[in-house]
Amino acid sequence: MIERLSKPDRPLILAFANAHSMNLLAKSESFFKSLCDADTVLRDGSGMETLFNQLRIPPGLNLNGTDLIPDLISLFNGRCIALLGTQEPYLRSGVDFVEKNLAPQSNFVHANGFHEEKVYLLLAAESCPALIVLGMGMPRQEEVAIALRSTLSYPCLIVCGGAIIDFWGGRTTRAPLWMRRNGMEWFFRLQLEPKRLFQRYVTGNMVFLARALIFPFFNSGLIQKIFRSRV
């Protein structure tokens, strides 16, 4: 799959869906449409595994963007890469990290995540990056991805990366490996930013589990509509 994504024959969107995104789409028809319109959506997190099992759908691998995107970037080494998201000084630090560790032969273009949509469309049209990583958070990055795909006419991969640029730039710290392997990275991040993430990880996780297990909101048809690959 990674090999196929690294050789796009048209503009393609790679997105990730976790418990937070399921809560968002329950309230936003436009975000639901954005996820459905992505070319590939990958399952991220143990909460999604619970949902898949509840619906008797094979959950497959847990593929979160923070672990997968660096592998993708290494396959784009030598081609132009755009990093669009977060803010300074983390954006510049993130670009430096990727250039030094993942794609030393690539040219980079970058912009913070607070511009109007047309700024990103113009930047991509002018520089023609083969890989565009969006680090704007949900649901904005998915909406920008759809706009980019509909505008660009050359082959490229557009990745909805969430906090990935913040991780590279040192704004956010990753959990220890043992916590990641046991699905506890959310708890680690909650300890670092309790005020900002309480609604998402505590209240949000409870709402997600209620929708999935107690008062079923999701159904197999809806989930299969989102998690289908067109690559």
Secondary-structure topology with pairs:
Elements: H1 2-5, E1 11-17, H2 19-27, H3 29-37, E2 40-43, H4 46-54, H5 65-75, E3 81-85, H6 90-101, E4 108-111, H7 117-127, E5 131-135, H8 140-151, E6 156-160, H9 164-169, H10 177-181, H11 185-192, H12 194-214, H13 220-226
Helix pairs in contact: 2-3, 2-12, 4-12, 7-8, 11-12
Distance from first to last alpha carbon: 8 Å
Question: Which blocks of ≥5 consecutive residues have pLDDT under 50?
Answer: none
Class by alpha and beta content: alpha/beta
Q: Which radius of gyration do the C-alpha atoms yield?
A: 17 Å
- What does the largest sheet look like? 6 strands, parallel
Q: What fraction of residues sit in β-strands?
A: 5-15%
What string, H for helix and E for strand, traces the elements in order? HEHHEHHEHEHEHEHHHHH
